[in-house]
Amino acid sequence: MRYVLVTGFEPFGGETVNPSWEVVSQLEGSIIDRCRVVTRQLPCVFGESLSVLNAAIDELNPAVVIAVGQAGGRVDVTIERVAINVDDARIPDNRGQQPIDVPIVPGGPAAWFTRLPIKATVAAMRESGIPASVSQTAGTFVCNHVMYGLLHKISDSAEVKGGFIHIPYLPEQAAAHPGAPSMAAQTVKAALIVAIEVALRQTDDVKIVGGATH
Q: Is 130 left (phi over 0), alpha (psi -120 to 50) or beta?
């Protein structure tokens, strides 16, 4: 049986939960298009997060890898287009590390583009009634670190698809951040199932508008 690896993060930045793991963990053992979903929690720590991710990839040899992270303040599910080769942390990670202008992979490419059909995924989510969009930046914190490291890891494996999805706060988190948008866990779960289905079925992306003016 083929595997799909989906990862979420532990809480960070003073939050007591991380919506990525709260939802991703619900997918453990699911069968989607004859593939078994395996989930892993990643530490919100530079370096260590990639060690855990890489070990899971080596163990499972998955067909698809989707890393999921919290993006408090975003209004919808955002499928990341690109990861850049820099750690530039606005806040410390969960081990107190705060790298500034440090390459993730010394000598590596400036950026890696996703290997997921991001526009087809956004279209499918919207057709399912789920707010979604393409994002042009994964930031410069541990989420970007993981996305870049993931894409660098699978760059020599043409058959493996991989990428990153950011999700909003859960409602219970947003309650502590007045005015912040949120999304229910069940909606996020439905979005991730759509993302897995599209990644498994869709070879080429679709040519629809997904860009941004700023």
A: beta
Domains in the chain (CATH in brackets) are 2-201 (3.40.630.20)
Please say if 143 is a catalytic residue. Answer: yes
Task: Please identify which of the residues 22, 35, 80, 145 carries the catalytic annotation.
Answer: 80
Q: What is the pTM of this model?
A: 0.97
80 is catalytic: yes
Contact yes or no for 49/146 (Cβ under 8 A): yes
For residue 76, what pLDDT is reported? 98
Do 36 and 69 contact (CB within 8 A), yes or no? Answer: no
> Would you state the pLDDT for residue 78?
98
Q: 163 pLDDT exceeds 90? A: yes
Say whether 214 is catalytic.
no
